[in-house]
Every structure is written in structure tokens, then in C-alpha cells.
Amino acid sequence: MALKKFPLPDVGEGLTEAEIVGWKVQAGENVTVNQVIVEIETAKASVELPCPWAGTIRDLLVEPGQTVEVGTPIISIEMAGAEPEPEPEPEPEPQETSGKIGEESNGRIATLVGYGPRTSSAKRRPRKDRVNGTATHGTATPNTDTGTDTRGTATAAPPEPRAPQVEEVRGSVPLAKPPVRKLAKDLGVDLRSLAGSGTGGVITREDVQTAAAPAAPAATPSGARERRVPIKGVRKATAQAMVDSAFTAPHVTEFLTVDVTPMMELREQLKSDPAFRGVKITPLAFAAKAMCLAARRTPDVNATWDEAAGEIVYKDYVHLGVAAATPRGLVVPKVRDADGMSLRELAESLEQLTNTARDGKTAPADMVGGTITITNVGVFGVDTGTPIINPGESAILAFGAIRDMPWVVDGQVVPRKICQLALSFDHRVVDGQQGSQYLADVGALLANPSLAFTY
């Protein structure tokens, strides 16, 4: 029987970690190739992972709710009729030594990083003494400068009361999985000071979190009207992207109020057109089409600032990003080559894209490589806003709510369908004249759709 461990793969472009949402299998269950075994959540999307092999599940190595790095083994599978593969040697960690995987120690076989007998040749890095700042080791060593023992001299400050206890604990290497080690490092918890509550003395996430609790802020009083939610997944990625964009690209936002009555009248006509039967033609589809047409006259809004190369990259295609609110947070999937689509094709793509996003099924690859973005704040009844540019792009358009408002037409005040637009652009790439021209063109196409024949 061969035992293989399946490492968490990079399901996107450059993703480094993911959260285990839930397992679709359990230990002892037989699985086939490409059978879905687990659902994970990355910074970009929720993804179901298929099994790469056929066999029997031995162990689920990661619990639901845990966030692990790409490359971390998450499940082990036994495959009949195959030769067992040797376990890889673990990478040594600073200030710790490990026994060899598979070597017997005290009647047990080492199977985890950090478990196993110590070898006489293993050495530790010097540590800074918590009291006097001098280098110390697990055993007393002479100080070559003074000829005295570094663990205590006549002139040294008195040791901390718990020092002997800590030294005693450091005599053995803690038993913990890689994600738990990372958590301990992030929280500043010394694993050598913990007694594991897991099977065989394994240190768990709960052990680390409990040890870190005294150093954490005071707990919220019972019954207080607030709650705390970890920052992770889509929210974490969105926050970092917005901060990077806001403090990298110099934003300029311009506004335009448009009479879109002709656009809404055309929309009503298309509802009865056989060519558009079965297609949901939304105002967003008209706005998206107008953006693609207007980009032909102002290609700067569809360009990218490449800081490393010292270049502005002009794109001869439009990969239109559409900001979508989902239960997991804000995501921005892309409509590829939107500039080559007809209004019907664009409407179909937008509907499919937004439905997939709301279901949390957007593939990570569909959320990268955009060139310009639209955000439809109008669906929330909002008139407009000052949107933040997506990293790597140069412009984003906020499409506001369409309202019945008084408007002056031929000197007469009449009720019309009015919409507000807001364009944010990167002033390194787009000058004020270019940004204004682009926004005016989008508005003109919505106010008079027949102008599309002139583009």
C-alpha cells in the first residue's frame, strides 16, 4: 500500500494560502480520480478540489476553518498495488531540531515535523538572554571574552523566576503541525512552553490560542452588543488591494449627470424584439457597451502603468471588470474581450457573470487581468460615489441609480430619466482632458444611443 499526501495547490495566480471550508469525504472512505474531496476559500473565490488519485482516505490532515499555506499536505490517501513513496525530509526550523521521519523513538514512529530523537550533532542557534541580552544556549557554555559562564555571572542581572522551567521544557522539540507552528509564530507563542492537548501530545490551534489569550486585549463583556470576525479571504484581499491602489495611484474623480430617457426607451423597444428574446437587457449592459465604445476614442483609460518597466502599456482589447457584491464580499470578475461583443452578447455575459459571482463559484482565473471596471451602485439606490481604481487598471466608472427627475428640455421643465456617473482615473496615465472626454463620451452614448453608429 502506498501512502500519498495531497498538498494544497495554487488554484489561482500567485495565491499563497486558503481556508478549508469543508470536507466532502471522511477517513476510511474510498475515492476515485477527480472526485470532489474538499471545498476551499481563497482570497478570490470558493473552489472545490478534485482528488488526484484513487484509493482510500487515511487521514484528513487539516480541520475545517483552518487557513493553510499552498504546499501544505491536507489529506493522505492509501493506494493499493503501488510501492510506498519515501516521506520527504522536513526543513529545519530556526531554534529547533528534528528527528528523521520514520525513525523510531520511545516506541513511536516519527511522522510529523519536529518529532523524533535528537542527534548529538544537532546544534541550536544562540538565543538572546531575556535579562542581560547575552547569547545563551540550551546548555552552559563559557564566555570566551570573560571566561565566565553566560548563564550567570557575579555581575549579571538575576534570572527570571521561570527560567529553569523554560529550560526544562526546551529539552524536547514540540509536536505540532505546520499551520499551528505558523499561528504560534504570528501570535508570538513559544511552542516549547505548551503541553499539547491533542492525540499523542500534539499541540493544537486551541492550545496556541489559549496561550495567547492573556496577551490579547480584554475580552468583550458578556452581553455586549458587538462581535469580532477574523479578517481573511475576500475581505482581506479586497482591503489590501484598495489600500495599495489608494496610496499608489493618484486618484481623480469626475461626475456627470445624464438624461438617459432615450436609452430607457430603446431598452423597452428591445424587450419586444425577437433578436433579444430570452435576454435580460439591463441598464448596466448599455453602460458597459458605452464604456467599450468610448475607450476607442480615449485608449488611455484602458492602459496600465508599469512602474517596474517605466512604461505605459496600452491594451488593444477590453477585459471589463464588473464589481459584484456577494455573501463573501466584493469580487470583480471580468468579461473577456467585451469590446468585441454585441449588446446582446454583453448582456448575456453580464448576467451569467454576476449570477456565478453571487453563488461564490467564480474561478480565480476569471478575476485577474482586467483593463477597466464598472461598479453599479445604482442597484442599491445610490446616486453615485468615488470608486477606487482596481490595482493594475487606470479607470473605474460608478453607474448610479436612474430616477425620475425634473429636467429642462427645449426650455420646458419635464420629467425625465436621470442618472449620475462618476469616473475615477489614475492621473499618472490619464490627464484631465482625457478623463473628461471619456466620461462625456459615455454620457453622450447613454443620452443618445444612435451615436454608437459614429464610433
TrEMBL record:
Residues 175-212 form the Peripheral subunit-binding (PSBD) domain. Residues 84-94 have a biased composition (Acidic residues). It comes from the Bacteria. It is an enzyme of class 2 (transferase). This is Dihydrolipoamide acetyltransferase component of pyruvate dehydrogenase complex. The keyword Acyltransferase applies. Residues 132-157 have a biased composition (Low complexity). Residues 3-78 form the Lipoyl-binding domain. Keywords: Acyltransferase, Lipoyl, Transferase. It comes from Saccharopolyspora ipomoeae. Pfam families: 2-oxoacid_dh, Biotin_lipoyl, E3_binding. Belongs to the 2-oxoacid dehydrogenase family. Its EC number is 2.3.1.-. One of its GO terms (molecular function) is acyltransferase activity. Its cofactor is (R)-lipoate. Residues 81-169 are annotated as: Disordered. The keyword Acyltransferase applies.
